[in-house]
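Friendly challenge for the regulars: who can give me the structure tokens for this chain first? No prize, just bragging rights.
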Amino acid sequence: MKITVEFEECLKDSPRFRATIEEVEGDVGELESRLDKLVKLCIGMIDAGKAYNTANKQFVNGVRELAASSNKDEVIESSLAKFAESLQEMINYHTILFDQAQRSIKTQLMAFVKEDLRKFKEAKKQFDKVSEEKEAALTKNAQAPRNKQHEVEEATNILTATRKCFRHIVLDYVLQINVLQSKRRSEILKSMLSFMYAHLTFFHQGYDLFSELQPLMKQLGGQLDQLVVDAAKEKRDMEQKHSTIQQKDFSNDDTKLEYNVDADNGIAMEGYLFKRASNAFKTWNRRWFSIQNNQLVYQKKFKDNPTVVVEDLRLCTVKHCEDIERRFCFEVVSPTKSCILQADSEKLRQAWIKAVQNSIATAFREQGEEAEKLDRKSSTSTGSLDSGGEPKEKSLKGESALQRVMAIGGNACCCDCGQPDPRWASINLGITLCIQCSGIHRSLGVHFSKVRSLTLDSWEPELLKLMCELGNGVINQIYEARREEVGVRKPTPTDPRQEIEAYIKAKYVDRHFVRRPSDEELRSKVVSLSKQEKRLSGCSEHLPPRPPPPTPKLRPASNASVRSADSGIQNSADGSREMLATTPSTNSLPEAEAAEVPPMAMPATLPPPSPCKEVLIFSEPKEYSPGLQLYWASCARSLPDMAEALAYGAEVNWVNVEDDKRTPLIMAVQGGSLVACEFLLQNAANVNQQDAQGRGPLHHATILGHTGQVCLFLKRGANQNASDIDAKTPLSMAVDAANADIVTLLRLAKMNEEMREAEGPYMQSGDETYQDIFQDFSHMASNDPEKLNRYQQYDPPQRP
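First reply, four minutes later:
Bragging rights claimed.
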């Protein structure tokens, strides 16, 4: 109801005015009461909404957890995840709605109550006070006696002043009343309209959200109908199976255990057996036994790692055991121990004995087949890079690698337990291992030991040379230097696996037996390494000039005649072979044709090799460290000293900040040792780490003309597109030095990379011709390196 007070009426101070004022004051009081109540209800609604949102969030989290636990059911997982996402969006919309309610109702109306109504109340107080003063002045003026002139004048003056003040106050009061009456409508409507628009937005957002979700819900509804039908059918099938099994005779259930060598999970036979412990009490424990991978193992719980009873069934026998009190016992005997087991019945005992005997026969049969395969593979040969169609040896495998590695001192027995005739190796340590110790080494992780078979795996020539440079004797002198001093016994093959595993971890992981050098010993070692061979006077990689050997013959390519090395690199295997077949060298092209390929053209007469620009001079460092020993040992080609530095804790990517930030791998390049580079790479050296000039190992190998090292780095993932601070790539350096071998390798690697990118994930291992040529270069670098020392080195520009 709109109530307006006229200004003229207030000056008369008539009864009508007073009645209007009372009505206004009553209306304002009621308004204040209702607004206070509305604000309190709004606060309660917001608090309840926040509590609802909190509970809703917990519910959504529960839905997400249920989806995560249903990862085996893709439909349930994806559907619940989508529902949880939609419900979370609704929670966000609710949060926005409650925030808008707080702004529009609580904040806005409370401001109106506190500010406008407070001004009205203050104006009312002043009006009431001046009204009382006016009434008092009128009364006093009326009571003034006629004969007392001074009282009459005093009363008249007071009345005049009071009337003047009353007019001023009553006009302000009326103004405040009219303003309040006008503002109350806009404030209330504005706040409520804002709140209603917030609801409108909330429901629009919810509608849009669930409109997008509706197709999925309809789809799931259709699937749900089918799921209900399938569930009913599965229930009937299970009830039928249940009834059928209940009717079976279980008295001969132990005959169901059968040996199956072709089982999908690799477990030929499994079941419960009692095992007699080897302790003094000879206790019997029931365990779950299985025959798998030609081993007899058992578990106490499903999640436990299997405990191996017999490592290799080929070395054991099985027999009845009738000399003990218990029934249905049999014994599995190996060269190192025996294990007495008990079945639940005589039929089960016979089944297990037969299964072990069949496993022994199967293991011997598989060994014979594998040996036959190895013999067939070792007899095959492919074309040679050196002699065209003559046979050559690529990566060594089987007995050839085994014989060469076993010829090294100490390698005839396992490095850790002494088991004779080991057939496994750790390639980053350079040692041989028995099958049990190799399994323990695998469990250490590849950052400690990389295990490979000496008979089943292929061996690249540089890796085989690494194994021949080290050996068990060298490594044990390093890693067991303090073993006797600390009083630890070296394990034997008959010791429990747990003891051997603890010893190996103490030896290689904790390095308890490594003798740490004193500062003076370390200094003497570093100085000695820095002075070996010709490292102080210059590089020793380059040999006197010699006539270039015949160009390696490549695999036959297409019949097309190609004149230029850069003509039409195709993204197909045929195109790649054309490119490889046309790589120029001094003997593969006539003089006129060689002139057509400037980037790879060779001079008619090779100039004598220039001396190495960078002379490696040893200067007294600020401090001596294992990293510095590794640095100079890499340059001196001393693998035992490199292995010793790593055992001392040297960082394989250690940076010499006093020498252009070079790394041990760069120094191995400077030293010219292919096997030193391979040793560092096998121990996680970074093949792309650059020095202060922005040059990585591939740059340095190209500068020095080390073709074998360039081949090795490209095989190990070196970045051939990296530029130094002079914007020189390895390819541009090789072209400037006219080193056709290195140019060939770099261009082949680049082309193979482009082919792999073009063919995508379907090209797994690269072009066959590329692989063959890189194998040939690796073979030549390891077994006949002099043939690759036929070009002058690159002479890098001197920086001011």
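Residues 375-394, 534-613, 761-765 have pLDDT under 50 and may be disordered. The longest strand covers residues 267-276. Your move, everyone else.
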